[in-house]
């Protein structure tokens, strides 16, 4: 039996035990994991050093090595994340609906764990801990397949966490790490219907597309964000400037950052230079339409392809439109249904934008950077869903649950 | 451009209009469709006659022809179904969550349409109308791909319904019928990410498996039911007999009917003959374990394969177990997570069964035949989901919606 199948089978067996645990039993395991990680930080850093050395030899970029690196402070922050998960309310068992039928049947709909979650991700070792914590808190087992560049770090993290939960009621088999770094192990996970209940990919576009296009197990897609902000005719300049600048520059590498700025022509005629000046000052490359270039110097021409690109970088498209309708049409044609914003003082325009834009999160007069589990008050998140089924937008703990109907009768039969 | 792509694109364009309609506008279209179907029943029956003649020539069984046949009464019942859908509450726009963050951001989570739903189904023309009605009510567009055996019927139904909504605010393009009866049109739908938001298959196991194993568009699986009823040691005979008999015999062809009866050995020793006698009287074939055969005559031996078979017929497996644990283990190994029942007077056993069984619907002392949208009070259903993501069990109208976060700010930026 392959490693993937064997470990997934162990996880599925452990899922039956997880389903019976109380919140207290699960929290005890999370806190034990947190303590063990901080206690054994040196062991984790030693394992991480092997990954870092291998990465450096392989010519990995410094920014990638930085994402991979574990320090004592980072380990403490990761452990603190587990403690925060322990403090979140447990969605499992929550009564969602309750009703009695005329025939006397009493029907309850309650939240239950999903079962076994497959996580496929890249080389950030913190995802190993976050995913384990979120899955265990919700009564799930997890089969983790991280990037090969972090394999030694992940092995050490999982060993420490499994040892920690050995003294609790959470079965050690609830946590599984796939160590086979061949791509075939990913592809095997994607087809493991019956053992894995859901696959959640986290990483770059190529990783996510491979999962979406090849999985037969249901997937929660955490996809790309080509996010827009539309500055309407009636926008206030002093509100528009910080919102747009924050959306682009506060952290360009993330999915909820701005890629394309749309500006109403009347607003542009009066304010385009002032709107764009902070970006020039911050060395953001601006690719614009011809009308933008006619108003402001220093604009490179934007191509149709640019409008469909998630830069994740200090590059921004700017396009002038003549109406709200034109802005809506541009976003419908180029957006990825992630986070979209309108800056306007016109309430009717705001309502139309919020109603008509098809996206996980739609904003009036605020930065798109708020699309985030912590910013929404949900706590740690397993990702931001860009699909429409099951969960959309920042996923709190309830996104890691399913439901079950419990029906109480006293002999009812169907006529 | 292929027929599938062209019609899906038209549906996607229409989805933007559907998203802005009020409940009243949608209901008006549903009622117009209902009236048109009853008014033009002769046209529908004429088209249906062509399908029936073709089917008869092709040697289609009488039971299949019966499922395909439209009569005036059946058309009236189908139209009545549309009127009932019009009367159901509209989930679109429902406020699911509302909260304000410390920074003043006001966040709403509201139900929105899914967008474009692809339905892949077999030869019951009533599904064409039901699916159209349920999808339009929830603000969705639908691309219908029915069985080729019902093509003339479906063409006529869609023509009548499109004509009916032409006089309303619902765009005619919201309803699309794929007329290409090659299997390649199904396979093209399964990969139409970006145009179709979800695929819902309805039909036999082969159809559903093809969809689940080949779709890259998210799927809601409406799968097989290998349902069990476990008669515990403490069960009352007079309650157990009708529950078990109803679960098996009331309508054996459907997914929530009983396939395997599990009986505690102590109950079996006293009552097995009385428990099974009604099945012998009804000419149900019984395949049993050796212990069952030792207690009752007329039992064929059950194989391991029998326990994993959805008969959908007058055949039932019977197995004697020595404990609740053995019953739970058998169901975990052989069930399809659809509907499972325990008949018992022991409340602790009932609670363990309802907690530990991993299924969409778990019953205490009632027939599994109640797993049904109408029986739960949800009204017409698009199907019964056997997956854990998005919707599980009978799917009411909310299962045909997604959600959107609407965020109202006054200049908030992220620090």
Give a quick summary of the entry.
2 copies of one chain form a homodimer. Chain A is of the alpha/beta class. The first copy, chain A, has helices at about 5-20, 25-40, 40-55, 60-70, 70-85, 125-135, 150-165, 185-190, 205-215, 235-250, 265-280, 290-295, 325-335, 345-355, and strands at about 95-100, 105-115, 115-120, 140-145, 175, 200, 225-230, 260-265, 285-290, 300, 315-320, 340-345, 360-365, 385, 395, 400-410.
Give a written overview of the molecule.
Chains A, B: Keywords: Amino-acid biosynthesis, Cytoplasm, NADP, Oxidoreductase, Proline biosynthesis. Chains A, B: Belongs to the gamma-glutamyl phosphate reductase family. Chains A, B: One of its GO terms (molecular function) is NADP binding. Chains A, B: Catalyzes the NADPH-dependent reduction of L-glutamate 5-phosphate into L-glutamate 5-semialdehyde and phosphate. The product spontaneously undergoes cyclization to form 1-pyrroline-5-carboxylate. Chains A, B: Residues 10-277 form the Aldehyde dehydrogenase domain. The structure is a homodimer of 415-residue chains. With 415 residues, chain A is an alpha/beta fold. Chain A has two domains: 3-220 and 395-408, Aldehyde Dehydrogenase, Chain A, domain 1 (3-Layer(aba) Sandwich); 227-370, 3-Layer(aba) Sandwich (Aldehyde Dehydrogenase, Chain A, domain 2). Chain A is built from 14 helices and 16 strands. The first copy, chain A, has helices at residues 3-18, 23-39, 41-57, 62-68, 72-87, 125-137, 151-165, 183-190, 205-214, 237-249, 265-281, 290-295, 324-334, 347-356; strands spanning 95-100, 106-113, 116-121, 141-145, 175-177, 198-202, 227-231, 258-264, 285-288, 300-301, 315-321, 339-343, 361-366, 384-385, 393-394, 401-412. In chain A, the strands form four sheets. In chain A, strands 10-9-11-8-7-12-13 form a seven-stranded parallel beta sheet, with helices on both faces. In chain A, strands 5-4-3-6 form a four-stranded parallel beta sheet, sandwiched between helices. In chain A, strands 1-2-16 form a three-stranded antiparallel beta sheet, with no helix packed on it. In chain A, β1 (95-100) and β2 form a beta hairpin. In chain A, α10 (237-249) packs across α11 (265-281). The longest helix of chain A is centred in the N-terminal third of the chain and has 17 residues, at 23-39. The two termini of chain A are 48 Å apart. The relative contact order of chain A is 0.13. The mean pLDDT of chain A is 96. Chains A and B meet through α9, α10, α14, β13 and β15 of A and α9, α10, α14, β13 and β15 of B.
